[in-house]
């Protein structure tokens, strides 16, 4: 038998252990999400008994009906989607532009600017000075408060710059010989080659924007038209407590007491907040493992 065609006993044993291990990793990874999904679709009274794993015992949509009947939910959802799209697009573009500047070897202040941004990773002015700064910039009670403070993130800039430093310098030199200016080189040469790292940073920013609620609480809690989904989810969860069920029992409204519970609402909220990110992730995953510079330079 030719070398490399067949597999020995040791190779087959290794494959069995490898596949078994990967199956166990998949189960461990998927089980928490499936458990949350099952509880979110399960009857609240039955949920209290426990023992629910990956399939609801008593299927119901009451938990989701309780959430979606909230008046501000559509407004909050729209604001969250808008801030996620704008915040991600502006954040990625701004961070990549700054990363390109400090990645240029002919930029004489490259080291000084990098040190200045590195300091911000370790030192912060604190919440109160930040609030006062936003107030003095007249950003309180505006939608811009969701976008402007996060335009530049030093960690994102360094990640993108590190990727750009690994690109062949001959690409930029060739473009410059052909008459391209810095903006043209950045837009037509650098950005297309940086799709993997830009997709990764975009996902990080999008998740952060989508999950953010504290800035709404701190700056726009009195502006209902500027509320966000995560903030409204937090309010719904806070308003749904065990004491409400006890009050319903005392008032004789047994159906209202057993229809929802804090546990079931918590799981339903988790699903509502997680599904949009799960839908976006598969479209960006392929860029994480794909090297677009392969074959870009022929030597």
Automatic annotation (TrEMBL):
* Membrane topology term: Multi-pass membrane protein
Transmembrane stretches in the record are 16-34, 81-101, 113-131, 143-164, 185-207, 265-284
Instruction: List the GO terms this entry assigns under cellular component, sorted alphabetically.
Output: plasma membrane
Cellular localisation: Cell membrane
UniProt KW Lipid metabolism keyword: no
Show where the ABC transmembrane type-1 domain sits. Answer: 77-284
Name the principal localization, coarsely classed.
membrane
GO biological process, alphabetically ordered: transmembrane transport
Which residue windows are coiled coil?
A: none
Q: Which domain of life is it from?
A: Bacteria
- Return the Pfam families for the record: BPD_transp_1
Alphabetically sorted, this entry's keywords are: Cell membrane, Membrane, Transmembrane, Transmembrane helix, Transport
Query: Where does the UniProt annotation place the signal sequence?
Result: none
Protein family per UniProt = Belongs to the binding-protein-dependent transport system permease family.
Per its UniProt record, what PANTHER family does this chain match? ABC TRANSPORTER PERMEASE PROTEIN MG189-RELATED-RELATED, POLYGALACTURONAN_RHAMNOGALACTURONAN TRANSPORT SYSTEM PERMEASE PROTEIN YTCP
Name by which UniProt lists this protein: Sugar ABC transporter permease
Q: Which organism is it from?
A: Paenibacillus abyssi
